[in-house]
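Hi support team,

I've been running sequence recovery on a batch of backbones for a student project. Most finish fine, but this one hangs at about 90% for roughly twenty minutes before it completes. I'm not sure whether the input is malformed or the queue is just slow. I've pasted the structure tokens below so you can try to reproduce it. Let me know if you need the job ID as well.

Thanks,
M.K.
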């Protein structure tokens, strides 16, 4: 092992288990990958210790209140910067970039931030004024997609400081018995099933999809069911002004379509894996907004890893997560007519072994091993 690979890393992030989400999973995988090669320290949310590598020194801060977390994290950052030998100070998102920069300046280390998209364009004047300058000053900015790279450049990050490292996924063993058990457990039988996975926010576009595309799908497949896995976020950088889930339920009630949508809420990994294998197609109708962006679309890669196609709009970083004609279909943002037609075609054709193989072959490019190799390279000066 080279001397460079033994250099220590401090990861500072609020987005870490036990909090739930794609960013949380990414930061956990990143820390585990780093801990295989370097001494690691983590400043994370309360409860993070049980999800971190045994060799990592963990410092927990209350995460329920953002201000309290930031205050605790700042104190811990200063303490570690003065008391430990740090070589890389890594922010798990733009939110903690100021702390990574501060620790790096104190320790004469390198400041690095992994950005996800929204943390570059968050619609908050205070954030734009105070946080973005520190992101610009970091020695390296790791972007999760080509689109996020463009966003980083648009807010003043020097292009030569930016590198793209896509999030990863696990490649599971396929198990038809799990798929059958999922359908039986929830009473779906042989019905055509669509799947939507992720936090229920306005950006995910579920309500416009239900209004503009879903009735057309039901015209051809009246027994189809949309399975929704996920909940509304309660600890996010950008909180929607109203409840997206309440709006969806209200629309379904008014339109008489309640029978066609099943909300499963948050499920465990075993149930999620079974769902990916049991359904016919994954829909990802994210919106293309100027102040809210889908940085990458990890769920599309996870679907592909399970042999499942994704039908999505070409919005934000989704173009990096879906390969047209290989792992799914990319449509012009807002073209619900095309989305309805494509979903109908997928339901009519059914999943073939060739389709499943192509999806999984595409997902192989995004393993967590490849992700961690990219992170290691980005951390090497």
């Amino acid at each position: 092992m080279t001397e460079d690979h033994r250099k220590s890393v401090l990861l500072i992030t609020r987005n870490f288990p036990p909090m739930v989400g794609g960013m949380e999973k990414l930061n956990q995988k990143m820390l585990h990958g780093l801990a295989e090669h370097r001494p690691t320290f983590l400043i994370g949310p309360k409860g993070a210790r049980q999800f971190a590598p045994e060799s990592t020194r963990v410092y927990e801060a209350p995460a329920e209140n953002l201000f309290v977390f930031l205050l605790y994290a700042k104190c811990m950052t200063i303490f570690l910067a003065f008391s430990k030998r740090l070589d890389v100070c890594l922010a798990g998102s733009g939110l903690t970039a100021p702390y990574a920069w501060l620790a790096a300046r104190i320790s004469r280390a390198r400041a690095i931030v992994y950005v996800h998209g929204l943390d570059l364009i968050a619609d908050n004047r205070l954030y734009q004024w105070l946080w973005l300058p520190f992101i610009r000053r970091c020695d390296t900015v790791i972007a999760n997609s080509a689109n996020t790279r463009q966003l980083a450049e648009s807010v003043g990050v020097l292009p030569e400081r930016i590198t793209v490292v896509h999030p990863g996924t696990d490649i599971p063993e396929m198990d038809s018995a799990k798929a059958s058990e999922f359908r039986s457990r929830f009473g779906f039988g042989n019905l055509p099933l669509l799947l939507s996975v992720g936090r229920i926010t306005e950006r995910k576009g579920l309500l416009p999809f239900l209004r503009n595309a879903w009735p057309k799908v039901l015209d051809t497949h009246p027994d189809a069911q949309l399975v929704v896995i996920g909940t509304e976020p309660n600890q996010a950088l950008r909180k929607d002004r109203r409840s997206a889930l309440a709006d969806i339920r209200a629309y379904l009630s008014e339109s008489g379509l309640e029978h066609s949508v099943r909300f499963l809420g948050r499920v465990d990994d075993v149930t999620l894996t079974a769902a990916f294998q049991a359904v016919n197609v994954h829909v990802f109708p994210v919106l293309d907004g100027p102040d809210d962006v889908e940085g990458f679309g990890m769920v599309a890669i996870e679907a592909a890893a399970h042999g499942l196609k994704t039908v999505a709009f070409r919005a934000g970083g989704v173009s990096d997560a879906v390969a047209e004609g290989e792992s799914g279909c990319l449509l012009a943002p807002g073209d619900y007519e095309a989305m309805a037609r494509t979903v109908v075609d997928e339901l009519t054709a059914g999943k073939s072994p060739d389709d499943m193989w192509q999806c999984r072959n595409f997902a192989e490019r995004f393993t967590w091993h490849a992700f961690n190799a990219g992170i290691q390279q980005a951390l090497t000066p």
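--
Follow-up from support: It reproduced on our side and the slowdown came from queue contention, not your input. The longest strand covers residues 40-45. No action needed from you.
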